[in-house]
Request: fold
Amino acid sequence: MKHLLLGLSALALAAPAFADVRLSSTVQEEIVIQKPNGGREVKLIPADSVAPGDTVIVRVAYANESEKPASDIVISNPVPEHLSLVDIREGGEPAYSVDGGETWGALSALKIVSGGETRAAKAADVTNVRWRLTQPLAPGASGAVAFSARLD
Amino acid sequence: MRIALFMSCCIAAALVGVSKASAETAEKETPAGTLAGRWISSAASVRFSQLGETETVETNNTLVQVAEIVAFDLNQLEQGKVGVKADEEYQFELEVTNIGNGTECFWTTPLDSKQGVLDITPVLLRSDSDDDGSFDFTDQQHSFGECSVWLAPGQTERLFIAGRMPRGVENGRAYFSITVGPSQGLGKIGTVYEDKGDGAADALSGTDPQEGYATFYAQGSTLRVGLQKSAVVGGDASRSDALPGETIAYSLHFTGEGEGAVRDALVSDPLPSNLDYVPGSLKLDGAALTDAADGDAGSFDAGAVAVRIGDRTAPFDILITFEAVVQAASQS
Reply:
C-alpha cells in the first residue's frame, strides 16, 4: 500500500501544465545481477526504498512540448541529502557546486576548506549539479540528464 | 503497480542471485549509515528562454525511503566453563551489537546443541540492564524466544544466560546452543521484509544467520582438593613432641589437581588451647600477612588462623605457614 500511495503522489506532483518545457524526475536503483554463467548484468529498477550503500540514478527528462524553440536551457538538481554523488550518467559534463549553489565550476577546480585546511573537492562533496544546454531545444525535441549517487 | 514491480524484483533476486550493494556491504564492517525510515527527496528545475521570456519550471518531487539494514554482531564472551558440578547453574555471557541502521529488538532462543550428549538446560535470560558488565539478580529478566532487548544503531547489550549442568556428565562435557536474531527474522543476507523496518520502511537482512548462533560448553569437574598440615618442633623435623616454651612451625599445603576451580576458598586452623600464636608469623607462599582482619588475605582472630584464598584454578599448590609456642605447664 505504501508504494501505491507513493506512485499516486508522484503523478499528482508532475510538471505544471502551463510550462512549455516539461520536466520529469525519476529515481532508480542500480542493481547487479549475478548470472548463472558467472556474468554480471546491471539493471535499473524503481527505487521505492534504498539502503545505505545502494546506488541510485537520479534522472531528469525534459521535452519541449510547445511549437516554439526554447533556448538558454539550464537544468539544476541539488544532490539530495544523505546521497553522495558518484558520477554523471547522461547529459555530458555539468558544472558543479560544493557550497549549495553559491559557486560553480569544473569539479577539478573546486576546493573544500575544512578545519583551516584546503583540499581538492571530490565527487562526494558535490551539493549541486547544473547542465547548460548549448543548443536550443526544437519543438518536440527531448533529452535527459542523470547522475548516480550512493546513499550514505 | 509498484508493489508488483517490487515483488517481481525480489523473486528474480532469489532465482538469479541479485546482489544489492547494501547486502554485500552489510556484514560486520558495515557502518550504520543513514537512519532507516528517512525519506530522500529529489527535485530539479529548468530555466529556459522562449520568445524573449525567461521561465523556470520545477520537476515533480521524487521521494525514496531509506530501507533498514537489519544487521548485528554476536560476540561470545566465553567459550565455556570448567570445573562445573552436576545440577548447578552457571551464567554464560555474550554481547549483541546492532550494526544496522535501524532500531531492532532481539530475541534469544535455546537450541539443541547437536553434540550427541546431554545438553545444559537453559534456565534464565537476563540483560545487563544496569550496564555494570556483570550478572546481577537485579538485571532485567526476559523470556526465551521473545523480543526482549531493543538496540539503537551502534548500541551493544550484554546478555547472561543461566544454564544448569545435567547429571551424568562428570568428567565430561555438556553443551548449550542458542540463536540470537532480530524481530524481523533470521533470513539469509538479502532477504526483504516488506514494511517491517523503522517508519514502515522495507527491512533487508544484512547478517548471515550463522552469525546468530553460539555454542557454549561446560566441563564437568575433575578437581581434587587437598589440605595437608605438618609441624616442625624446634627446627627438628624428626621430633614428634614439644616442651613448654618451644616454638612449633606449622605448614598448611592447600592443593588442587585435575581440572576445575575453587571459589571463595578460605583456609582456617583453630589453634589448640595450650598453644600461643606467634604474632606476625603468618605467611602465604612466603609473603608475610598481618594478623589483623584487614586488606590482606590473612588474620588471626578468636584463636584461629585464617587465610582467604579466593578463586583458584587447578592446578595450584598454596603454602600457608605460621608459628605457635607451647604454653608453660603443658606438653604438645
Notes: The longest strand of chain B covers residues 247-257.
